[in-house]
Amino acid sequence: MGVTRLLKKVLPQQRRDRKEIIASLDDRSFYRAKHQCPSCSAHIEEEELAAHLFVCPQCGYHFRISGPERIKMLLDGGSFVELASEVLSGNPIAFPGYEDKLLTAEDKSRVDEAVTVGYGMIQQRPVAIAAMSFHYMGGSMGSVVGERIARCLMHAVERKTPAIICTASGGARMQEGIYSLMQMAKTSHMLALMAKEGLPVFVVLTDPTTGGVTASFAMLGDVIIAEPKALIGFAGPRVIEGTIKQKLPEGFQRAEFLVEKGFVDCVVPRKSLRETLIFLIDTHQKGGRGKS
Fold first, then answer.
1. pLDDT per residue over 198-214, tens digit each?
2. Which of its termini does the chain have fewer beta carbons within 10 Å around, N or C?
3. Is 166 annotated as a binding residue?
4. Is residue 251 assigned to a domain?
């Protein structure tokens, strides 16, 4: 309760007028980037790329997508109800220029924070869901990201539903200092509460998932899924090489490498992700995870 009261002082509850952002979520021009595949350099038409769920039809490269787009791909049409949209970032440590950075991030990403949370149905199965947007300040986790994820998981606890968390982050948001680091403990606590209640959490690691997000809720799911070739780790490979003065193995910190080492349960292509999650939900609910 103490943290909640503190956040109420820190975070503005008045939602800014962002109707143009919501209206533009269906505007595919956000993903243009010339639509040249970073992997095979193929030029892909907008409609073709969208039809393939923003996966290159030539080489299978998975383009980065926003949280709202991912939610649309996973949930039944029209079933999503957003939560905590009124919780927006303030400037808790008076970091110079932070407010301007937030506005610029909104304009570029067309989302109002690095995570979108809510609940809905996946093949008529109720689920809580949180999906991160790397395009918004590198998907960095500040106090709003932590609070939104916490509220999402609390909704799952109250409704006794499973939860899906899709990650995409560069780590903690330095502009919020210790308030950002606090979110690692908060989100981890909420996953522990889900475990206590016997409610499964399925985490989908997307490119990239690093830093404080990896060191907290991203690796605490009951089943950890990764998209193909997603970069997953704490520190970046260049930082590690500079520290240990050694060349890292090929594919280090990529999804397939982590599956081999046991850090990730499976790698699932985007086109199969919805069906995989439905299977996992059914398996866990029928088998009964049970309270710990």
1. 999 999 999 999 999 99
2. N
3. no
4. yes
Residue 282: inside a domain: yes
Instruction: Give the pairing of strands 201-209 and 163-169.
Output: parallel
Q: How many domains does the chain have?
A: 1
Which residues lie across from 26 on neighbouring strands? none
Q: Is 266 annotated as a binding residue?
A: no
Q: Which of 7-21, 56-70, 159-173, 235-249 bottoms out in mean pLDDT, i.e. has the lowest?
A: 7-21
Q: Are 166 and 127 in contact (CB under 8 A)?
A: no
**Cα torsion through 128, 134, 135, 140, rounded to 10:** 100
Inside any domain, residue 35: no
Q: Is 240 within the bounds of a domain?
A: yes
Question: How many Å apart are CA 126 and CA 76, to the nearest integer?
Answer: 10
User: Percent of the chain scored above 70 by pLDDT?
Assistant: 86
**Is-above-0.85 flag for pTM?**
yes
Q: What is the CATH number of the domain that holds 188?
A: 3.90.226.10
Q: Each residue of 91-140: pLDDT tens digit?
A: 999 999 999 999 999 999 999 999 999 999 999 999 999 999 999 999 99
Domain boundaries, position 118: 2-15+65-287
37 known ligand binder? yes
